[in-house]
């Protein structure tokens, strides 16, 4: 047990074994089996077919668009998360709770609706569509639409990790730095950033997984133009609907690999954050 | 700006708050306002025609029904899984714990095609179900399976912290007073876990209502039979019926907001009640 608590009373051994067996079987069948299936199906036609599928020009262009979208999304949401956590954690102002609620809003919006709203804003018959159309700018059914929808679905991810942590850390260190004559940027970089770096990386890892894997929202705004507005998940769908199953699973295996790497990184970061928390508790105790 | 906040020596308030509010408005508030405007900006007759025609009603029934059944099954098994992960030590415990997060990390389209492959007629599990006359793929059962996959982590991750917070003394007291273990589980432990269980159930349910990627491959998408509400929105969009799509989307959005509001309110109420008792 991680909590270090000792529970002297427990269920009889036979019941414990039964419950463990039920848990392992349920998770094994419901969750592990699909992951294994992705890799098995991907290699069904042999390794050379697998390599051929993931190096196909259309798969590569989908990969490029996915990486491009994720990169812009992460930078945009990172800047937002830093600004939001700074003003929310370091200052008191009316309406703070409302702001916190609004930041979490995208979590409650389902994927298809997350795409739909951008068609209503930027589509040909949307609020800004005609204006942008006259200027020759296309957002929906093009790369900008994919990027904006992805920014929306990953909107709270990084901010959500930073805000509670920075609230907990308070304002004393920043106040001291400012009074000692440090500028805003220097205070942030030398005092705040070292305190939040692992939470920052944690948020980026989670946001990245969702950004690269988002399907519903991106599917609605992409227009499905092969080689141009297809991300990896959309490419998987197209291959699958063409009954090109082995190729679909080959491309899907890249995304499954991303998920495995994400979970490993998440576990490592959680361990890292726990260690640092323990160290800071010990350090505080010594003072 | 100076009067908006309490006095502080730390710089950057105006800049960061201004940026936060502008970015939030641009990415989140204006687009959601567009949906509200489009959804409500049509005559009631058209709105109700879009939301209550027989095909949409069938989709509502299917969406809410499968989400409810899937979340309920997840709640039962999630309770067992969380309990074994928190209370028992067994080989592979950490692996099972890590696997719980897979549905969060695996892109929905990938889980969708993988589940379809497993439960198809010639799939690993489908081939055993088929002789029994059970068709998992292209049926509501398939949708339930996909939603069970999506919903499980919400239940387990909601329960684990409150199981770790349980007080060993309460259980010891129950045992000391002669309560059999099963009675202690039912009368002492389960009530303490109830708020977390309900919160996990409702969050999973809300998430399942809007799920798209993992469902559309296994469901077969037959109108009136296996067509979920999210897919209906996409279908209407492809027919350029933006008003109809917005009407359905608005109703879905309102339901999930209400559900999540209920969860937050319930948690606030439960902590307040606990504090009053203590």
Report on the architecture of this protein.
The complex is a heterodimer of chains A (287) and B (278). By secondary structure, chain A is mostly helical. Chain A has one domain: MetI-like fold (Orthogonal Bundle), CATH 1.10.3720. Chain A is 77% helix and 0% strand. Chain A contains 13 helices and no strands. In chain A, helix 3 (57-90) runs parallel beside helix 8, helix 5 (111-122) packs parallel to helix 11 and helix 9 (172-179) packs across helix 10. Chain A is globular and about 65 Å long. The model of chain A has no long low-confidence stretch (mean pLDDT 91). By secondary structure, chain B is an all-alpha fold. Chain B folds into two domains: 1-40, no CATH class; 44-277, MetI-like fold (Orthogonal Bundle). Chain B is built from 13 helices and no strands. In chain B, helix 8 runs antiparallel to helix 11 (213-219) and helix 9 (168-176) runs antiparallel to helix 10. The relative contact order of chain B is 0.13. The chains are: A mainly alpha (287), B mainly alpha (278).
Number of helices of chain A: 13
| Molecular shape of chain B | globular
Overall tally of domains of chain A: 1
So what's the CATH class of the largest domain in chain B? Mainly Alpha
- The H/E string of chain A reads HHHHHHHHHHHHH
Beta-strand residue fraction of chain B: under 5%
Specify the CATH homologous superfamily of chain A: MetI-like
CATH homologous superfamily name of the largest domain in chain B?
Answer: MetI-like
**What shape does the CA trace of chain A take?**
globular
> Structural class per helix/strand content of chain B?
mainly alpha
| Terminal CA distance of chain B | 42 Å
Specify the CATH class of chain A.
Mainly Alpha
